[in-house]
Inverse folding.
């Protein structure tokens, strides 16, 4: 079964305060999804998975909304319609769908199809990060370094990179090790303690 859209990771290194943070731009979704992945929700009622997914999204299913929204936004498998894609992504995000929150974060971070809004991007990444989304955790760390939205906090940046790395995000591991060179041993210990507390609380105590 062909994937509903191609998932491609583009890593762009951004020089920030003497070190580089690897920025994840995973399109269109933080996870590889196929029509088959969500076909079980259709109960085989539709011979056309695409039509079935749209119907499911219109019925309020957040997984389908996230998939259909991303597909419309980038024009893969569905006609490109950024406005409609944003509508579905926002519906899924309103229900706390981590992938939709992350994708909207990327959209506002880049100013792609919307006015660039770093504050909104930060809030969306933060919401997705608290749901365990590794790409969101990675991208969130940049905001604790570049001081565009919030005050610089290298300990928090290390914490989020560490959490993303723990889920297998290679770019996050590289960035975590890079910024550690600019931290004191005590700062690293504090960051590790915060990461452990966050993980053990299932991302509920990460502030």
């Amino acid at each position: 079964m062909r994937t509903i859209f191609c998932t491609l990771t583009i890593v762009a290194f951004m020089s920030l305060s003497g070190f580089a943070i690897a920025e994840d731009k995973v399109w269109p979704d933080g996870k590889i999804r196929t029509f088959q992945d969500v076909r079980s929700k259709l109960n085989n009622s539709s011979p056309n998975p695409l039509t079935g997914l749209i119907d499911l999204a219109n019925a309020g299913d957040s997984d389908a909304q996230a998939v259909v929204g991303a597909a419309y936004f980038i024009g893969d498998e569905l006609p490109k319609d950024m406005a409609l894609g944003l509508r579905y992504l926002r519906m899924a995000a309103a229900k706390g769908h981590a992938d939709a929150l992350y994708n909207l974060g990327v959209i506002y971070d880049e100013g792609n199809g919307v006015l660039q809004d770093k504050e909104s991007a930060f809030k969306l990444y933060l919401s997705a990060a608290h749901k365990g989304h590794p790409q969101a955790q990675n991208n969130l760390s940049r905001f604790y370094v570049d001081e565009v939205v919030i005050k610089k906090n290298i300990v928090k940046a290390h914490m989020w990179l560490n959490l993303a790395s723990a889920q297998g995000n290679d770019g996050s591991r590289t960035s975590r090790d890079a910024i550690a060179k600019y931290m004191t041993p005590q700062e690293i210990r504090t960051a590790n303690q915060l990461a452990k507390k966050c993980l053990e609380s299932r991302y509920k105590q990460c502030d």
Summary: The chain has one domain: 8-200. Confidence is low (pLDDT under 50) at residues 1-22, 25-36.
